[in-house]
Each structure stands twice: as C-alpha cells, then as structure tokens.
Specification:
The complex is a heterodimer of chains A (about 475) and B (about 80). With about 475 residues, chain A is an alpha+beta fold. Chain A has one domain: Amidase signature (AS) enzymes (Alpha-Beta Complex), CATH 3.90.1300.10. Chain A contains 17 helices and 13 strands. In chain A, the strands form three sheets. An eight-stranded mixed sheet of chain A has the order 6-8-7-12-13-11-9-10, with helices on both faces. In chain A, β4 and β5 form a beta hairpin. Chain B is mostly helical and about 80 residues long. In chain B, about 65% of the residues lie in helices and about 0% in strands. Chain B is built from three helices and no strands. In chain B, α1 crosses α2. The longest helix of chain B is centred in the middle third of the chain and has 24 residues. Chain B is elongated and about 55 Å long. Classes of the chains: A alpha+beta (about 475), B mainly alpha (about 80). At the A-B interface, α11, α12, α13 and α14 of A face α1, α2 and α3 of B.
C-alpha cells in the first residue's frame, strides 16, 4: 500500500479499511506522520508530534481484538493544542502556557479514545484561541495548504491547515466567534460549530464560557458526522463533568445523512448576513442556493429579525470580558509575553461597564427565541456566508493591534458571531475556488441541537457537487 | 496623527483606569483602540437594552435552547 494514497482517503474509508484488515492502523499512522513531518512542518501547523508514541499507539490498536474496537478504531487524528491530556503539554498557542502540563484529560479526548481514534499530534492555533485570521505572534502564523501566502483563518488554524493538507483524517477545533468555521472556509474543509452545550468542555482551555463550543473539522460531511456521534452528549464520568452540557438526546445523524435535500426547506436571509460582503461572496451564496433548488429543496426567503445584528457586537464583548477575567493576572504580570492583538482584545474587556456585559447576557434568550421562532418555524437551515471576502493573504490581514484593527475584527465575524451569541449550530461547507485558487465556502445555520438535519443538508450538497473532493497539490 | 482635546481627555482617562486597576497601560495607540471599542460595545448594548425586552435571569438561555430543540430529542 502506497502511504501517500492512504493519506488521501477519507476518515470513513480508512476506518473501514482498518476494520477489514486492508490496511493497519500503523499504515495509516505512518502516512499521517510523514505528512505532518512534511507539509505540517512547512506550513507551521504542528505544535507537537512524537512519532514513536503515535506509532506505538497504532500498534496497540492493531493488536486490539475486533470485539473490543470502537467506531473510529485506529483512525489517526490530531487536535488544536487546547484539549488537555493528562501528563502532556498543552500550550494553547501561547508562550505563557508553553510548559503547561494538565492533570486531567478533556472529555472530548476521552470520548475519542473510547471510540478507538488515535491522537497523534498537537496542532498550532491562535494564541489562546482569540483571533479569526490565524496570525500568532508567539508561535508564528500557520499557512494555508492551498497557497502558503494566504491565511488559514483562526483560531483553529492548524486543524484547518492539516485536514486540508490531508495530513490527518480529522481534527477538533473550538468556536467562540467563528474559530471552526473560519479555518474550515479558508482551508476548504467541513467544519461543525455545535450548539452551545452539545459537547462537554471539561478539560478544554476556556476563553469565554458563555460562548465556547467544541467541534470537528474533516474532509467530508460524513466524516464530520462520525466524529459528532463520538463526542456529542453530556459527560458520564462524574469526575469530569461540565454542567453546561445539555441533557438532550444525540440524534443518529448517520442514519439520516443520506436522506437528500428533497423536501428540505432552505432559508435565504433577505437582510443582514450579506450586508458587509463583497459581491463575489453573494455569488457563492446564490450558486449554493441554485444547487439546493435543483436538488428539490424548497427555497424560502426569510426576513431575519433586525436585533440579530447585535450578535456580532455582543459576542465580541462577552468574549473580551470573560477572556479578560481569565487573563487579568497574566496581563498584569506577563503582558510582554502576549501577542499584540491578543492582549489588546483581552484588555478591551476591561473597558466594558459591568452592567452592559450583564445586559448582553440578559438579552440573549429573547433575541435567540425571536430568531429561532422567526426562522426555524419556516425553514430547516439558513444558508449564509462565512467570510465577507475571499481568503486574504497573510500580509494584508496582518493588522496586529494597529489603529483600526477592531474594525477589521468586527467585519470578519459579521456572519459567524451571531451563531455564537445565539448558541446555534452551523455547518461550514467548501464550494468552489476564487481566481487565486483559494476555497470559497458557506454555512448552514440550524435550530438548537439541530446538527442532524444540517448534516443531511450538507451531505446532499456534497454528494451533488463533489465539493469536498478537491485536494491541494502539496 | 492629530487628536482633539476630547480624544486626549478620553485617552488620559483610559490610561488612568488601566494603570489603577490593571497596574499598567500599553501604548497610546492600543489604549485608544481598546477604549473606543469598549465605548462602542457599551453604546450598542445601551441601545439594545433600551429597545428590547429582556429576561432578568440570564440562566434562561440554556433552557431556551433545550425548549427549541427538535421535538424527537427532548424526551
């Protein structure tokens, strides 16, 4: 078996091949390690890789009796460097935590372990997960596998880059304001921002408890649903409990994922989401709508409640305030160890009156209820853009904390932050390329805990357009 | 870059705030940027709070998400 061909398989394909004995977990892991050591290093996506440990884990997987194997048995994954594993460094994209060794293992990693997946590397990320472009003054910028002069998006920059580069079969990221959807869009992969409370955050680096969510980045929609099935749901270990995880059933997303788009109601917003977008982004959304129409979905224009617009500002504010509360001590004692933009955005939280922060949280249920009732009583998914522009270059988006940088931050998250404020799930899908060869994308926003129907809608689109087939030439 | 008296006063107030409660203040350009951002956040929120009804109990948000979940997942 040619290692390089294994690396181009989907997660599902390699999982099935390991199950039947067509390839071993070692074969798959060797293929991934080779690509992580190659393009992973070149693109600055790897925070930590111990090939010997990874291959030993693969050998142990190959030795496991078939009856003891989980649904992701032997599949090599790697994750954003903010998911704690007991005894292993988790640097969180920072210098401040460069030597941090947690004494717990994140629930999401424990769940993936139980499913049989291999955790073979730590992937670079934006410093403390606070940034949408992917720049990192401390560990360096991660580069886009489609063109290394362009951003990966952040904050799950390494996850997007390495899934896009076909170096791992899937990766976890986190999304507080768009940090799964941005890198998914920039790197041409599939990313699911889960409903707030769908996945336990126990053992994950916190940024903003009111907003943080965990989710997978993968090459295909089906692959993404497979990781969803493994990580969704409340903690069962009493020693590892995130009480904000909802006690609500996890759907059999894979059981309905091939049901097609016929009969689905796809909403198209008549206002708000495209307000700041370049014309080319509107063209991408129009083209995606046409695909769904041709597939037999009902296309419904939806007037989005105007107060939805507050979601962008409120998300930035809540994240800054809660992030500042977490970082105030380090900001006072180790300010010089932060990147300029990270420190500035955190310090912004010190400038917000407490009553305004409280009001933003108190308005949340009302704004969300109004949005959900206005939109999801009429449609199953809302089709909206991710970025407002094509993928920018690293150089042109390297604004640091220079004057005006908050305007760029505000525009960048225009279409992503509302889902964070309202706690809604949103699936990002790649769709075509711009003139520079960088991916375009769109997102499907769903009702609370509606990930299942998003996977169905996304899979129908993927099956028709083969939008997840192209791979970068590395 | 020229600045108005108001901007200078706002900058000085923000510097004083940071130095008192954070123990230091970064460069003027950064202080000005984060001060403007904080003021914008506060102004947008004030406008929203004046125009929208809101629940005084922020903990209603998780319950609202559960209530709006697909029916077949609630049981």
């Amino acid at each position: 078996m040619n290692d390089s061909s294994i690396a181009h398989w989907t997660l599902e394909r390699v999982r099935d091949a390991i199950a039947t004995g067509e390839v071993s977990a070692r074969d798959a892991t060797e293929a991934c390690v080779a690509r992580l050591e190659g393009s992973g290093r070149t693109l600055n996506a790897v925070a930590g890789l111990d090939a010997e440990t990874a291959l030993a884990a693969a050998d142990a997987a190959d030795a496991t009796p078939k009856d003891d194997r989980g649904p992701l048995h032997g599949v090599p994954l790697a994750h954003k460097d903010m998911f704690y594993r007991k005894g292993r460094v988790s640097a969180c994209g920072s210098g401040i935590r460069a030597d941090f060794v947690p004494d717990v293992t994140a629930s999401v990693l424990a769940r993936l372990d139980a499913a049989g997946a291999l955790d073979i590397a730590r992937l670079n990320m934006v410093e403390f997960a606070f940034g949408l472009t992917g720049h990192n003054d401390i560990t360096g910028v991660v580069r886009n596998p489609w063109n290394a002069d362009y951003i990966t998006g952040g904050s799950s920059s390494g996850s997007g880059s390495m899934v896009g580069a076909r170096a791992v079969f899937g990766a976890l990221g986190s999304d507080t304001g768009g940090s799964i959807r941005f890198p998914s869009a920039c790197c041409g992969v599939v990313g699911m921002k889960m409903t707030w409370g769908r996945v336990s955050r126990f053992g994950c680096m916190p940024l903003s408890s009111s907003l943080d969510t965990i989710g997978p980045l993968t090459r295909t929609v089906r692959d993404n649903a497979m990781i969803f099935q493994a990580i969704a749901g409340p903690d069962t270990d009493p020693a590892a409990t995130d009480d904000t995880t909802a006690q609500i059933a996890v759907p059999d997303a894979l059981g309905t994922i091939e049901d097609g788009a016929k009969g689905l109601r796809i909403g198209v917003p008549s206002n708000l989401f495209l307000d700041m977008a370049e014309p080319e982004i509107g063209d991408v959304v129009e083209a995606a709508i046409k695909v769904y129409r041709d597939l037999g979905a009902e296309i419904i224009s939806v007037d989005v409640p105007p107060e939805t617009a507050y979601g962008n500002t409120f998300t930035s504010m809540i994240a800054s305030v809660e992030g500042y509360a977490l970082h105030a001590h380090w900001l006072a004692t180790r300010y010089q160890d932060y990147g300029a933009q990270t420190a500035a955005r955190l310090l912004t939280g010190s400038m917000v009156p407490a009553n305004r922060y409280a009001e933003a949280l108190m308005l949340r249920a009302g704004i969300t209820g109004t949005f959900v009732d206005a939109v999801y009583d009429r449609v199953d998914a809302l089709l909206v853009p991710v970025l407002m522009t094509g993928v920018p270059t690293i150089e042109e988006s390297d604004v640091g904390a220079n004057p005006g940088f908050m305007r760029m931050v505000n525009r960048a998250g225009h279409a992503t932050r509302p889902a964070n404020y309202m706690g809604l799930p949103s699936l990002t899908l790649p769709f075509g390329f711009d003139a520079a060869g960088l991916p375009y994308a769109f997102q499907l926003m769903g009702r609370p805990f509606g990930e299942g129907i998003l996977y169905r809608a996304g899979r129908a689109f993927e099956r028709e357009t083969l939008c997840t087939d192209p791979a970068p030439d590395l | 870059m020229s600045r108005s008296l108001d901007d200078d006063e706002a900058l000085a107030a923000s510097r004083a705030w940071l130095e008192r409660f954070q123990g230091f203040a970064p460069d003027d350009d950064v202080v000005r940027e984060i001060s403007h951002a904080g003021a914008r956040f506060a102004e947008v929120t004030r406008e929203a709070a004046e125009n929208l009804a809101f629940d005084s109990d922020a903990h209603q948000f998780p319950r609202l998400l559960r209530d709006r979940a697909p029916d077949d997942l609630k049981s």
